[in-house]
Design a protein that fits this description.
By secondary structure, the chain is of the alpha/beta class. It has one domain: 3-Layer(aba) Sandwich (Rossmann fold), CATH 3.40.50.300. Helix content is about 30%, strand content about 25%. The protein has 5 helices and 8 strands; from the N terminus they run βαβαββααβββαβ. An 8-stranded mixed beta sheet has the order 3-4-5-2-6-7-1-8. The chain is globular, with a radius of gyration of 15 Å. The two termini are about 15 Å apart. Bound molecules: adenosine-5'-triphosphate and magnesium ion. The site of adenosine-5'-triphosphate (ATP) has 17 residues, from helix 1 and helix 2. Adenosine-5'-triphosphate binds next to helix 1 and helix 2.
Length: about 170
């Protein structure tokens, strides 16, 4: 599968990560699947919080929970799926995630690299990594036409907003 479009961004603080999330949330459409990878504390939930705000979700909570799927209602449904605690493919398959992943809401999947085989081939992959206490590296890879379009729109909004001071965005 081609990586049709990719974008690399350095976020300087949690607020900037959330702002990227807000833009993503605003640009999201029915059925979009956003996959997040990165270690503990990489900022996956922080980004998701922004996505929720971008979808006009009021009651988003990032408090710890043992639920694998959390559902929120805003402009569209948001399904926040966290695969961290799941060890086995069988456990994941038992959850019947397909109803979410191929449904009409937006799915954000944390720890998507735990079980890539159960996830749709077309998606926006966001790999997050730690640079320093307040900086994070975000690599976006679009798989499929819809996500290339989404990513190119995100890129143009971020460039527009930041002008020369730029979010450090590079596309390939
Ligand atoms: N630039 C940044 N972007 C995002 N978070 C940042 C940034 N700088 C510092 N942080 C801090 O890093 C932490 C990120 O936590 P978060 O819960 O989002 O990580 P996570 O990737 O979801 O981890 P987990 O795998 O445990 O769910 C927060 O405490 C946040 O304040
Ligand atoms: Mg998290």
């Amino acid at each position: 599968m081609n990586n049709d479009y990719s974008l690399h961004i350095i976020s300087d603080c949690p607020k900037q990560t959330q702002n990227i999330g807000i833009k993503l949330g605003r640009l999201s459409q029915e059925g979009d699947v956003l996959l997040l990878t990165g270690n503990l504390g990489a900022g996956k939930t922080c980004l998701t919080q922004g996505i929720a705000r971008g979808l006009d979700i009021q009651e988003y909570t990032s408090s710890p929970s043992f639920m694998v799927v959390k559902e929120y209602y805003g402009r569209l449904h948001l399904y926040h799926i966290d695969l961290y605690r799941l060890e086995q493919t069988a456990e994941i398959l038992d959850l019947g995630l397909d109803d979410y992943l191929y449904g009409e809401g937006i799915c954000v999947v944390e720890w998507a690299d735990r079980e890539p085989a159960v996830l749709p081939e077309e998606n926006l992959l966001i790999k997050m990594s730690y640079i320093s206490d307040s900086k994070r590296y975000l690599e976006f890879e679009a798989r499929g036409e819809r996500y290339s379009e989404l990513l190119s729109e995100l890129h143009s909004q971020l460039s527009h907003q930041n002008g020369d001071r730029g979010i450090n965005a590079v596309s390939y």
